[in-house]
Amino acid sequence: MYLKKELYALIQSDESIFDFIQESSLDGLCYLDLENPENGWMNAKFWNVLGYNPDEMPHKSAAWQSIINQDDLKVANDNFTKHCNDSNHPYDQVVRYTHKDGSTVYFRCRGLAIRNKDGKPIRMLGAHQDVTELKRREQELYKANEKLLESKEKNYSFYNNAPLSFQSLDENGCFLDINPMWLRTLGYKRDEVIGKWYGDFLHPDYVEHFRINFPAFKKLGCISDVQFRLRRKDNTYIYVSFEGCIGYTPEGKFKQTYCVFKDITEQKALENAIIKAKEKAEESDRLKSAFLSNMSHEIRTPMNGILGFASLLKEPGLTGDVQHEYIKLIEKSGARMLNIIKDIVDISKIESGIIDIHLSETNINNQLQFVYDSLKFDADNKKLNLSFNCALPEKEVIIKTDIEKLYGILTNLVKNAIKYTDTGTIEFGFNNKDKVFEFYVTDTGIGIPKEKHEAIFERFIQANIVDKMARQGAGLGLAISRAYVEMLGGKIWVESDEGKGSTFYFTLPNSTQLTTETINRQPAPSEKINDVRKLKILIAEDDEVSEMLIGIIIRSFGYDVLKARTGVEAIEVCRNNPDIDLILMDIRMPDMGGYAATKQIRKFNKEVIIIAQTVYGLSGDREKSIESGCNDYIAKPIVKDKLLSLIRKYFKKELTLS
User: Fold this and answer.
1) d(CA 211, CA 193)
2) Domain containing residue 43: CATH number
3) How does pLDDT run across 407-457, given as a tens digit for each residue?
4) Domain extent for 179
5) pLDDT digits over 231-260, tens only?
6) Where are the beta strands (DSSP E) in 216-368?
């Protein structure tokens, strides 16, 4: 479209460009004024093909009517009238003109009606392609074919055993003859076809087209690559491509039509599949553009809060309360940013197909409690009543599943319920139903229109759905949840009425139950600082800010803190300090990554505790860390309490000091 606009602009700015186009055209071009037939224009090519010099035709716009075959003119006018009434009706046919020397010239004419603002046709553009030579060769071929077909001794075997479908029709369009391949292709018996009108075997969309164009076919004498849909005896339809010609008597009168067709149903299905794939790709690109635009807004908004309030903290004269409020806003913006990044990383791994399943035993009741505890604060802030329902006793709810993904699904659904509920209640829970656990999250929120019940689970689609309340979020939670549910062998759906609330359901198989024992909960770690001895610690971290943060967090535990900026440096420090107690190993560093460095260190130091620190924080990271030789891992951004809890796990004194 961009190039078309440029061409329009060039033609308007320089008339010589239009002259070049019409003079260089290999077709005859015409322009007619339908309101004033005397006004019109034909290019030189049109008249040259007919043997005329354009200067010989003083009234060019009307002169063509005197040299066109009058029967063809009537058919052409009828077809153009249909085109004017219905723009989807093509104006495309072969017509005969009389050459200056008296011979016949065949033109393939294609026309387009130009309409005013009320839709009324006022002009016509036409293109005339000289197909005289093609017609001559076709007629020679058809006459040769007719002689061949009329020789029964030579053609009986070919006609009946040919891999193509043959048919002949009389002047009314009724069947005169068909070959066995025709019958096999469509499933009829011969007596069910002979004498019947051809239109009775067409798809309803093509019947009127045949009725109108069959008389024209008889006059033009040939058809090429015409496509129809034919009805089989079992009432299914196939696409076919026709080639046909007219058979004449020795006196030159119409005798019958001869047609051959091939089944192109598979070809059409492939074409349609390609078109749908193209449309899907274009839609995907459009949705991803909307998604990226939404992400830009979602990322910039919390960044504005973080950078803006961090800058305000530097202003002199701030009271402690104001500083505390600014810090709370920075933490809130940071948490929002972390959620967005996590969703983007998760959907990227799902899109690329590299996300893994890690099965382990879990207690469903405990998972519901964890979700409730983590989101109760958000619900209270909106004055919503959040509750959960543990439908079964502990001994009946131990299953084998991916704990992180189950937690992620429930968290996404409850977060969505909180986001889209302004007043009322939110409840979540599960029921045991015939080999599956059916989970639910129900709310009294804004609801979802029925036509969007499927679309909301599509990746990137929510960025294209208008939210009148402009609620924040990446719009990926439901797509991620559906992917996780399907990975775990379940399904997810929603029941909702707009304005009345929603209930999301998802299932997980319970046939993987392993035990009736309850999961032992670990006691909460001691909050006392002095319950860990002083440690010699190596911080392997290439980012200066992260290194500073970790150093501040662990300063109460470390009597000697060493630092390394690369994996190679970390190995060297460990060789020179065999008494190191703890290594906090960043996974991504220059020269050598944390996993590779850990493997090298384990070759000469089996005892040192190594905790991997990673920016990913994805399912499977813990397993990769353990496999490389780490004792544990922690995801960035590092939370102080989580890091201290891990250190206590490995270095807590046997006797807790008071």
Assistant:
1) 18
2) 3.30.450.20
3) 888 988 998 899 889 999 999 998 888 778 889 999 999 888 888 888 788
4) 136-263
5) 888 888 888 877 777 776 666 677 777 777
6) 222-231, 237-248, 254-263, 360-363
